[in-house]
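W.,

You were right to be curious about this one. When I first looked at the sequence I had no strong expectations either way, so I just let the prediction run and decided to look at it fresh. Below is the sequence, 110 residues in total, followed by the output.
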Amino acid sequence: MSTRTDSATSTATTATGTIPVAETGARTDEAAEVIIDARGRIDELDGRIIGLVQERMAVSAVIQRERMASGGRRVSFSREMEILNHYSEQLGRSGTALAMTLLELCRGRI
C-alpha cells in the first residue's frame, strides 16, 4: 500500500482514499503513515483469517456429516478438548476463548 502524507492538511492519501491523520491516533505524519500501512495489512490478514475460518467450517461439516452417517454423534468432545488444549498452549487463555469461538462456529447444523 502506498501512502502520501500532507502535513498542511493533516491527511494521508492511500490507495483507498484520504484519511485524516487524527483518525489514526498518531501525533506525527510519519507515525500516521506507518499506522495506515499496518491497518491495511491487518485488513488483508483479517480477510485471509475469515476465509480460513469459512474453510474450517466446511471441513468440519464434512466430518460431522460422515460421523453421523456412520451412526456417531455430531460432536466429538474429546477432539474438541484436544483443540482447546492446542490453542491454549499456543496462545494462552485468549487462545482458549478463540478456540471456543471456532468450535461454536464449526458445530453448525447439518
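Here's what jumped out at me. The chain has two domains: 1-72, 75-110. And, maybe more interesting for your project: The chain has a mean pLDDT of 86.

Coffee later to discuss?

I.
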